[in-house]
Amino acid sequence: MPVARAFASVRRSLAPMLAVVGPAGWLVLAAALVGAWAGRRLGWLEGWTLAVAGTLLLAVAVAFAIGRSSYAVTLDLGQQRVVVGNRASGELTIRNVGTRTTLPARVELPVGSGLATFRLPRLAGGAEHEEMFVLPTHRRGLVVLGPVSSVRGDPLGLLRRQVRWTDPMDLYVHPRTVSLDGASAGFLRDIEGLPTQDLSSNDIAFHALRDYVAGDDRRSIHWRTTARTGRLVVRQFEETRRSHLVVGLSTCAADYADPDELELAISVAGSIGMQAIREEKQLSVLTSRGQLRAGTAIRFLDALCLLEADERDRGLAAVGRAVGGEVPDASAVLLVGGTAVGSTSLLAASTRLPVNALNVAVRCAPGEQVSRRSLGNLVVVTLGALEQLPQVMRRVAG
Q: Taking the mean position of all CA atoms in its chain, how far away is CA 211?
């Protein structure tokens, strides 16, 4: 409809102007209009007084809000990726690129769910103002900074004119990890792969001798036995495969007694995954919500930053079933969960894991002592602190 299109066009044109008026501004405007109506229709002197007072307040607010801003704003982070608990800082630089002196203003910088504000003084043409700030890194996660905006307005908050100067920036707060050099030598070993039950005529894991049949590779002939028996005999091997490590991490809130258990579990998964990446092992990481991107160390740690527990997520038993269905050729499987994961769930998970793999479940229990037990084809270890992980890996490998 032409009328509807015209109305929408007018609304879009007025939207930037109407956005400047705050809730208090609309209240004062409404009071001024009502006062003017009462003064004109009812002859109330008080109504005219209210109208004049409201109009004066709005006029003063306009004087505070008008004026052009000519800033060049730079938001600089020393580093965009830090480990949880480490210091992270940034610097905000604002320069007046115009020739005229700018009026004081307020600068707002959203930091995650919070808001940092800075007072910007008068700036002569070409002058700069710098602000240093410290960023919160006490929790793992993704902290979004910005966009940086300058705000002009009156002290009563009737009018508020905001100008955006930068795009948002991301600060990744990575989980803590520990190095497993040496401790992982047994768990992540790859001497040309681990043997399977499939027989092959050409591999490293020797299995047995058998009679030669047409088509066999003559390089596999065992000449000493052939000379002794008088017939051609060839070596039979067990087929081997390259080590493929799978980490299964539960993000189901019901699997953890408190948030500290989840953070320890994520740190365990991160430490194992990072060691596999450093040693260039094939790595797959599955969580309750699906597979994580683990192509590079940075991408892997960034993905761990975004994990959160949710009651609606699948539990560790479902993660184990997913591992068996999606990565049936795994040579080592590490399932990670909290103290709320019971033996029934662990058994349910173990029934779907690859039979020929080394299957381990890590029970994250902050403050508890290291322990190890067997549950079906699953080795269950209890971990009380991240620093104990190298010790646990040595126990599993042994």
A: 57
Token output for 287: 């969580």
> Which two three-digit tokens encode residue 113?
């769910």
The SS3 call for residue 56 is helix
38 and 158 together in one domain: no
Please state, in angstroms and rounded to a whole number, the distance separating the CA atoms of residues 327 and 182.
Answer: 26
Task: Determine the Cα–Cα distance for residues 110 and 161; give it in Å rounded to an integer.
Answer: 17
Domain that holds residue 315: 244-397
CATH number at residue 356: 3.40.50.410
pLDDT tens digit string along 159-192? 878 888 999 999 999 999 998 876 554 555 543 3
pLDDT digits (tens, 9 = 90+) for 61-96: 777 777 667 899 999 998 999 999 999 999 999 999
Alpha-carbon distance of 71 to 67, in angstroms, equals: 13
**Residue 1 C-beta-side C-alpha neighbours within 13 Å:** 4
Helices (H), 279-370: 297-305, 316-326, 343-350
Same domain, 19 and 99: no
User: 207 and 271: one domain?
Assistant: no
Do 60 and 85 belong together in one domain?
no
- Helix, strand, coil share (%) of the chain residues, nearest 5: 35, 35, 35
Q: Please state the pTM of the whole predicted model.
A: 0.75
Among residues 343, 271, 370, 190, the alpha carbon closest in space to that of 285 is found at 271
Report the candidate in 90, 70, 84 with the shortest Cα–Cα distance to residue 168. 90
Task: Say whether both 235 and 249 belong to one domain.
Answer: no
3-state secondary structure of 117: strand
